[in-house]
Amino acid sequence: MTSGGVATGRLAVRHRLAERGIDRQLWLLLPALAFIGVLFLYPFLYGLGLSFQPAEGGFLASYQAFFTDPYQVGTVWNTLRLALPAALINVLAAVPIAHRMRGRFRGKRVLTTLLVVPITLGTVLTAQGLLNYLGPTGWFNRILLSTGLVDDPVRLTNNYWGVLFSLVITGFPFAFLLILAYLSGIDPTLERAAATLGADWRQRFRRITLPLLAPGLATTFCLTFVLAFSVFPSAILVGNPAGETRVISIAAYQAAYERFDFSLASAIAMVMAAVELGVIALVLLWRSTLYKGSTGGKG
Amino acid sequence: MSAAVSAFNELRLDGVGRRFGGVDALTDLDLTIRAGEFIALLGPSGCGKSTALNCIAGLLPLTAGSIWQDEKRIDTVAPEKRGFGMVFQNYALFPHMSVRRNIAFGLQMQRLSRPEVSRRTDEAIRLVQLEEHVGKLPGQLSGGQQQRVAIARAVVLEPALVLMDEPLSNLDAKLRLEMRTEIRRLHQSLGLTTVYVTHDQEEALSLADRLVVLRSGRVQQIGTPEELHARPENWHVADFMGYRNLLTLTATEVSGGRVAVEGAGMQLVGTACGDGVREGQVIVALRPDDVEIVDATPSGNAIRARVELVEYQGKERAVEARTGAGQVIHVRTPRRVAPGDDVTLTIDPSRVLVYPSTDDVGELAVPTLDRVAS
Which residue of A has its CA nearest to B161? Predict the structure, then answer.
């Protein structure tokens, strides 16, 4: 009688756990959790702690040093000024191209490959290409000069524009692939149905495709924004790292490896994270107001 | 709701064809649809019926032929300008819009006044009895309710032509019957002109005024349900119209309309269908309902067989019997028979349809028979 009671008790516990979706398969999460803990959580918390332990002054001294120095605070603005337009351009440019590339057609694979190649290039190669092409003696300016459109070379590198171009080139493939995936998740018969109901292509896009795609656009914007916000190599290679493209990661780098003030560097990294999270939170807040259910497609 | 505003007298398809990368999906479709007609495009999957519908809707450009609405050529007109309503197989309801906004969508596209949109939307919602569900999203509705929304959304515009692409194929059997009646009721009460695509011959026969049977992109026969039911033009159509017994036999004598056929241990007298029936190999089509089980040996066609399978189907039984030569014959009978019974079957010579075994494409085609050597 008692042993039977114990057995049913154990069974009941198992059933209750199963009801909450807890079973032995959860152990499969362990490697991922360990990975996150060791390689992300621990360094992050360590940096957070470090930012409150300045060499001199109170525990907020590093943050004070950052926020009271206009030269340092300016880097936040410099970075936002690059990352926000870059993310926006990437999303806006990817939508029509991805829309056109839904479905099957000849040469789709070649075209997709071409559009995605910039991912494989890396920032340095892109930067070199930009310098060669858009630099003062690059082809672009040589063509402009020889056709007499301009008298002096247009400055498109080693300033804001160079970095923006670089961010757009390297960020576009991500935006394109993500949006293509979101778009192919939308049932193409919805647009056809709208057509038979009298909607022209503009109305079909605005009333049907765009509302269904908007959550995906928000996510894509967040991801490309984060990529662009942590810009470092191109800000130095094709930008003006002492001036208008002195982005926040450069400030953190200089604090850490030129002045060896690890506390200040950590504080700057924390500010960087806070700004990123702020922008993402705003975008996701907007996203939460949108329809996010089934879009009828295979995605 | 009144009759369609931009109604036409007739819609004429003139040699309509569509190729996909070198493959003909639809060839040479000639069809005149009169106002108020219910036309069913019928055929197995891949026969080109959905292609034909999409061509009429303007969702697929033609690669041959033209479409005329009275004297106006419309196959070059964009789908949004044709004013045809369409009901899609998967309904294609806008998932982010409520039932009400789905139905109002077309009216809003016509830039009608707000009260007008509201009035006609209400009317359409009442028509399909969805008053309680107006605020719901499509994902919250059952299949039958989604179907109603799709129909309301298409007919609220009072379209000159309503196109339906297998609208019932995603519903369960009971709902399918209900919605079938509903569709026919709407067609009649609103005075619609409807083109309906289906692969279900029963659905097509019960709904349509005229049927178009398609096979491999070609029209096989156009006719009323009675014509198709009683006299299919070739054995493919017969196969599709429920002539379950397709026997490859030999014609021994052809005189006028009468044909004597034999083979598989049978000797039958039948009726020649078409001019192509010659002595030699023919295909004989028998509808299971036309075959009778009799007690006494009949004076006319007689087939002896042994009952192998009996399926109870309410008023009748579907019986599978096998002749001495191994030929399976499907019979529907009100009689009580059991597997193992020896029976005598008979069939009126006018219901033994004899077709040439070559079809119009020219290939020598022999139907796949369930004559498995026992």
Answer: A196
Residue A126 sits at the vertex; the CA angle it makes with A123 and A131, to the nearest 5 degrees, is: 120
Task: Give the pLDDT confidence score for residue B300 in this predicted structure.
Answer: 82
Partner A, chain B 155-194, Cβ-Cβ below 8 Å? 157, 163
A294 lies in some domain: no
Answer yes or no: do B96 and A211 touch at CB < 8 A: yes
Q: Which residues contact B364 (CB under 8 A, 6 or more apart)?
A: B357, B358
A142 and A205 both lie in a single domain: yes
The residue among A106, A196, A204, A298 with the most chain B CBs within 10 A of its CB, best to mutate, is: A196
Amino acid code (one letter) for A56 = E
- Tell whether A19 and A133 lie within a shared domain: no
Tell whether A203 is within 8 A of chain B (Cβ): yes
What is the nearest CA distance from B95 to chain A, expressed in angstroms? 6
For A116-140, what is the mean pLDDT? 86
Q: Kindly state whether residues A2 and A111 are assigned to the same domain.
A: no
A125 inside domain: yes
| Residue numbers in B near A200 (CB within 8 A) | 78, 80
Range of the domain at A47: 1-51
User: In the CATH scheme, what is the homologous superfamily, with its name and number, of domain B243-356?
Assistant: Nucleic acid-binding proteins (2.40.50.140)
Q: In terms of Cα–Cα distance, which of B345, B338, B335, B373 is closest to B287?
A: B345
What CATH superfamily is the domain B10-230?
A: P-loop containing nucleotide triphosphate hydrolases (3.40.50.300)
Strand runs labelled E in B161-244: 161-165, 194-198, 210-215, 218-223
Beta-carbon separation of B90 and A198 below 8 A: no
Largest CA distance in chain A: 101
B94 contact residues in A (CB cutoff 8 A): 190, 193-194, 207-208
pLDDT bin (cut points 50, 70, 90) of residue A4 is low
Q: What is the pLDDT of residues A24-45, one digit of tens each?
A: 888 899 999 999 999 999 999 9
- Select the residue of A190, A196, A208 nearest B85 (Cβ to Cβ): A196
- Check whether residue A186 and residue A39 sit in a common domain: no
How big, in percent rounded to 5, are the helix, strand and coil portions of chain A? 75, 0, 25
Q: Are residues A16 and A155 in the same domain?
A: no
A31 and A94, same domain (yes or no) = no
Question: Is A184 in the same domain as A283?
Answer: yes
Residue-level pLDDT at A5: 58
According to the model, what pLDDT value does residue B108 have?
Answer: 93
Phi, psi at residue B161, to the nearest 5°?
-150, 135
What CATH number does residue A189 fall under?
A: 1.10.3720.10
Cβ–Cβ gap B78/A295 under 8 Å: no
CA distance A260 to chain B (A): 54
- In chain A, the number of structural domains is 2
Tell whether A125 and A271 lie within a shared domain: yes
Per-state percent for chain B, helix, strand, coil, to nearest 5: 25, 35, 40
The overall average pLDDT reported for chain B is 87
Task: Report if residue A185 sits inside a domain.
Answer: yes
Domain residue spans of chain B:
10-230, 243-356
Spatial distance between the Cα atoms of A270 and A51, rounded to a whole number of angstroms: 8
Flag whether A89 is in a domain.
yes
| Greatest Cα-to-Cα distance within chain B, rounded to the nearest angstrom | 75
Which of the four pLDDT bands, split at 50, 70 and 90, describes residue B369? very low
| Contact call for B59 and A293, based on CB within 8 A | no
Nearest residue on chain B to A215, judged by CA atoms? B96
